[in-house]
Amino acid sequence: MSSLAVREAPPAAGTTGAIRNRPPLRRRIALVPTLTLVLGAVYTLLPVAWVVVASTKSGSELFSTFTFLPGTGFADNIRQLDAYRDGVYWTWMGNSALYAGLGALLSTCVSALSGYALAIYRFRGREALFNILLAGVLMPPIILAVPQYLLLAKADLTDSYLSVLLPQILSPYGVYLARIYASAAVPTDVVEAGRMDGAGEWRIFTRVALPMMVPGLVTVFLFQFVAVWNNFLLPYIMLSDDEKFPITLGLYTLLEQGSNQPALYTLVITGAFLAVLPLIALFLVIQRFWSLDLLSGAVKS
Amino acid sequence: MPNAQRRRLVVRSAASALAVALGASALAACGSSGGDSKAESGPVSLTYWTWTPGMDKVVDLWNKGPGKKDQITVTVKKQASGDSLVTKILTAHKAKKAPDLVQAEYQALPTLVSNDALADIAKETGDAKGRFAAGVWQQTTLGTDAVYAIPQDIGPMMFYYRADLFKKYGLKVPTTWDEFAQVARQLKKKAPDKDLTTFSANDSGLFAGLAQQAGAKWWTTSGDKWKVAIDDAATQKVAKFWGDLVKEGAVDNQPMYTPAWNKALNTGKQIAWVSAVWAPGTLTTAAPDTKGKWAMAPLPQWSTGQDVTGSWGGSSTAVTTDSAHKEAAAKFAAWLNTDGSALQALAKESGIYPAATNAQTSGAFATPPAYFANQPDFYTKAAEIAKTTAPSAWGPNVNVAYTTFNDAFGAAAKNKSDFVAALNTMQEATVADLKKQGFGVSR
After folding, report:
1. Measured between beta carbons, which residues in chain A are less than 8 angstroms from residue B80?
2. What's the number of domains chain A is made of?
3. Which of B52, B91, B266 is the closest to A63 by Cβ?
4. Tens of pLDDT along A23-68?
5. Model confidence, pTM
6. CATH of the domain at A272
7. Buried b (16+ CB within 10 A) or exposed e, B411-428
8. ipTM value for the complex
9. Which of A81, B33, B127, B283 is at a distance of 20 to 30 A from B41, taking alpha carbons?
């Protein structure tokens, strides 16, 4: 599921530029780039196709029939997954939605505010702050998980919903993206004009700048949503109560049941398949927001 | 118990009748972090990290029965098994927030003990000793007077084979490893596309069990120093035996637990498996089409007349040093692994093979596993084999030895090169890591 998400995301960031410079229609199809992209698509979609096909196989078909031959057990797999420990799977799904949805939303708000501030205001230490942020982008979140655990343990917050939400609210990458986007999409002229008209800073931000930043923020939201949805290590360390587990962790417990227990492969595969669906739906729904980009230039002709 | 957990427990059950009782326990426990000798009074609630499926149902028996009487409530928090859980426990322990009770594999106990994560519960559980085979119990004491865990399940090793195909190819079930090698060669001659079994370099636990059967003692202590003997004569014998078989192509060299391996078992490309008592569960998913065609026999021996096996897997229940109610936790751990009704529920709900010797022949094990319906005395035989388990000797960095095993033997199996050289790599890496961790090491 992560490969799909991560690979689909970069075009999202680039779309803004691509649409603006849309070439005149009826251009000849460039063969080499197209072929490269098709190859890339096959490479990323093949595992997804495997998950889709494998989720239709029953336990006895999973390893015995041809890999891409659909099986007969899809309904049964779903039923078993639904029945597993009184439907704990749906609890995990709900938890994932909460962590990813609320987490991404809060993270987008923080990114929008700080990105806007870094782009528009000139203050001492701005560049230093931004550079530290850039260093943060380079830092893989994985190595922060244990220190974050020890920190939250001091505040008695471990094994709570907050323990997974809080560390993911500040995303250096999100702030970075928001800053880049704000400095490109929000012209200082517009901010100045707002000030001339007597609007306060907060009002300028919410009424003038924010609408211009929406396409960029949608990208930040999407990035963060996918990152949280796929996150494993942070919730793994933070949570011990499996009623609070997100889906990644839940499926892992199905796989690792101890040496004397068979791994529940069909359930894990079906569970993984169902877990990709919300991500795909989100991409399809949110895609249309990117076209807002076309309307966002207020002073550009 | 850690504050957060205590508070949450209170909050969660605020609506229930238990709220008042739990609240009282939270208050009562406030001033007593870490006091284990103090007499328990008032209700106690414990958390238990375990990966065993169905454990919540077994714990329900406790909460409604003896636990209710003693006012000790246990909450199961299901975890994923494996080395990552040991890391998680140690991380939690660093913040003094480990749960009261944890499930731990035997080979993880020295790691947990050397990090001071497990409490000595000898005082509370000393009389449980007689319920277990000596070789099993010794793993929870680490050869000291302390008791760091109560054995839960064990994995005595056995030899599984396709009875129908053995008959078809006129093969004799091997009783010694020499015969095992001969059978492998005979099969290659009669059916070149088939393999007797595979040497999987992905499963350090299997190799450790085989070495244990041969008499290896990988970690021992002398004085306050550790001695590592992964490259001892017994282990070298085992490594050379399998290395030669792989080299001449008599057995396969592909890892186990892969789709390809499942397929090989299911289609009869591989016709035997050196495994442990839990194999029926694995075979049920790996080779569903061959149900009823397998049979189980004791592991081949190194010399005729010998009767000894190794163990692969198995786990125990331990009490952490972070627990504020060690006495109550130890009481539960002892009940879980020695009480008749608990053990029966563990067998029924969780499908574990109990460490307690009298449970191995109890009602739950009167009939064979469904996959082995053709072998009615499966569990009678298993109990006999379990008695012959050789003692094992684990150290504080089994994970390092195992990781090195995967790398070194993985390469050796793939290239069909020298297994003994791989063994030396394993020894050196393990010793180097022990020294790096600050343990005294004697040669």
Report:
1. 249, 252-253, 255-257
2. 1
3. B266
4. 555 567 789 999 999 999 999 999 999 999 999 998 778 877 788 8
5. 0.83
6. 1.10.3720.10
7. ebbeeeeebeebbebbbe
8. 0.80
9. B127
